[in-house]
Amino acid sequence: MAELSTTSDTLTTAKAQPVRRKRIKISNIVDHAVLIAGAVLMLLPVVMVFLTTGFEDTDILRNGLRIDVGPHMGENFSNAMFERSGFTEAITGMRMLTNSLILGVGFALGKIAISLLAAYAIVYFRLRFATLAFWIIFTTLLLPLEVRILPSYEAIQRLGMTNTYGGLIIPLIASATATFFFRQFLMSVPEELAEAARIDGAGPVKFFIDILVPLSRTMIAAIFIIMFVFGWNQYLWPTMITTEESMFTLVRGIKQIVAVLEGGTIPEYGKSLALAIIAMIPPVLIVVFFQNWFVKGLTESDK
Amino acid sequence: MAQVSLSNIRKVYPNGFEAVQPSDIQINDGEFVVLVGPSGCGKSTLLRMIAGLEDISDGELRIGDRVVNDVDPADRDIAMVFQNYALYPHMTVEKNMGYGIKNRGASKEEIARKVAEAAGMLNLTEYLTRRPSQLSGGQRQRVAMGRAIVRDPALFLFDEPLSNLDAKLRNQMRIEIKALQRRLGTTAVYVTHDQVEAMTMADRIIVLNGGRIEQIGTPSQIYHNPASTFVASFMGAPPMNLLEGRFDNGTVMINGGTALMPSPLQRSGPITVGIRPEDVLLEPTGPLPFQVDIVEELGAHRLLHGRLEDQNFTVHVDKETHVSPGALRIALKQDALRLFDVKTGQSL
Q1: Which domains does chain B have, with CATH numbers?
Q2: Would you say residue A62 has pLDDT above 90?
Q3: Domain around A243
Q4: What does DSSP say about strands B32-36 and B58-63: parallel, antiparallel, or unpaired?
Q5: Distance from B87 to chain A by nearest Cα, in Å?
Q6: SS3 sequence, B70-87?
């Protein structure tokens, strides 16, 4: 690509000014070589997984991953999405995709709502021990889900929330990271804005909804992207809390298909690889479409 | 429209710092009052207490005939213009200006009408759909003014509204604000640290220093009869010359030998003598020797910085008077001397 465009550049300049020739710097070539090598290294496994979905399970079992195009791609993808599977035959790829989306979106929105409110309380209200409260929230960074998984499971199980979306999402939505980001952002909002709003007759709720939420929208978008991907990729907690197959998420569903190997039948490699590809698509789309917002949210703000 | 009265208003912060000492101020209906003083003198605190953004530690604040000590800022019938404009960045000019009355439950038509009216007054009509970030500093300041006007309050509060603007725009906005306030007839309290703004805009000036009111008076009173050495040196550019002197045999003298004037008071001992730079005449036969060190050229006039005997002294001369550094003789205009107590700094 790079070489191509450089050549065409050289051609056009050569036509206009025959004497001058654009020189290609060695360092440019090296830079691009490193970049291309890196990109290939990162993308090749994904491409191989994608191409391998074009073959039958027995073929894959014999020959491993492929880098040529096979005939069964459509069939494998449609099986992955629409064929009922699992022990109880209660789940399709569509269902898993829906579950994953609910988890990802609920997880991200829940985190944003909770942390924005927490940050608002810490920054704008003269609470006793507000700083202490903030640092306590902050120390929960040291206690990720994996550390508190037994008590969390116990609590959710006793509340009867296993195999529900609530049980899947709620224990995960407290977020020290997001609270910290929002706190830093709100602290940078000029105090006069709050005072002007007070004189303009906006109470605490109105000020929050009319002024702070719209001001934080790039920040909210940035955190939404991070948290959506984070939620989408959750594996351990959904595995613990969902025992009914109809509640499975994509990430855990893939594993379920491959696990059949232990049962003596040939695992549905084509189908699970197709699911793996599908599982990658939403986070990629979100990042691609929202990357402008993402960069804006983390670097600039219109205050 | 309303008069404002502060009786014994005082501000003490929890750490014991007394930002405003007990102060009494009466502001008449429609009056433009400027609070002026160096930074940290308590002028902003005083304004914020009137606005309700700071609690009043002691005393009574009335706006109109209502005691408003414990009334929420939103219900005090005031509007405030901030130094950094404090416009809502995500709202258009129109929304910014209408937000206050929208919160008070005004109808859509009423909001549109009042915003259009204020925008017309401030030449903002063509900018109504823009965001604050698309406006220049002067335009943003106008929007902030418009937001205050739309509210149609009893009292305008200005917190150093011009200090973020460049000098030229500041002069222009100074006149605009003053004219607007005249036209609307709304009582206004204006805080600034710029004595030129205070002099040019105020009906009455309140000079503050260290949380204490030094003097309240019209610009002319403040300038010609400063109540203390602080006011004398703060108001006026260049400030009043303050010389060390003393009473001796019924005469005011400086530097032991130079007599300035017959003493108006039966006193003896040291005294501070104040002389405005423009109350001095250059006369070849004048009674006082003046050594010019530097001539400061200001176009419309010149400032001669130098020494009277061995004390710093500045003389203001008009542009027709050409002077080069060296020894001169000067005379004082009649009634040019102001006398202050050395210890308290108060006018005698």
Answers
A1: 4-234 (3.40.50.300), 241-340 (2.40.50.140)
A2: no
A3: 93-299
A4: unpaired
A5: 7
A6: CCCHHHCCEEEECCCCCC
pLDDT at residue B133 greater than cutoff 50? yes
More confident residue, A238 or A293: A238
Confidence band of A87 (pLDDT split at 50, 70, 90): low
Q: What is the ipTM of this complex?
A: 0.84
User: B226 φ, ψ to 5°?
Assistant: -60, 140
CATH number of the domain at A258, please: 1.10.3720.10
Q: Tell me what pLDDT residue A109 has.
A: 95
Structure confidence at residue A2 as a pLDDT band (50, 70, 90): very low
B83 contact residues in A (CB cutoff 8 A): 192
A82 domain-assigned: no
Tell me the pLDDT tens digit for each residue of B206-217. Answer: 999 999 999 999
Cα(B112)–Cα(A132) distance, integer angstroms: 46
| Residue A163 CB neighbours (<10 A) | 14
The secondary element (H helix, E strand) that includes residue B282 is strand B280-282
Interface of B with A (CB under 8 A): 51-53, 72-74, 78-80, 82-84, 86-90, 99-100, 103-104, 131, 133, 147, 151
pLDDT of residue B184 exceeding 80 = yes
Answer yes or no: are the C-beta atoms of B245 and B253 closer than 8 Å.
yes
B73–A198 CB contact, under 8 Å: yes
Cα atoms found within 13 Å of the Cα of residue A89, Cβ hemisphere only: 1
Residue A240 lies in a domain: yes
Report DSSP letters for A12-46, one per residue: HHHHH-SS--PPPPHHHHHHHHHHHHHHHHHHHHH
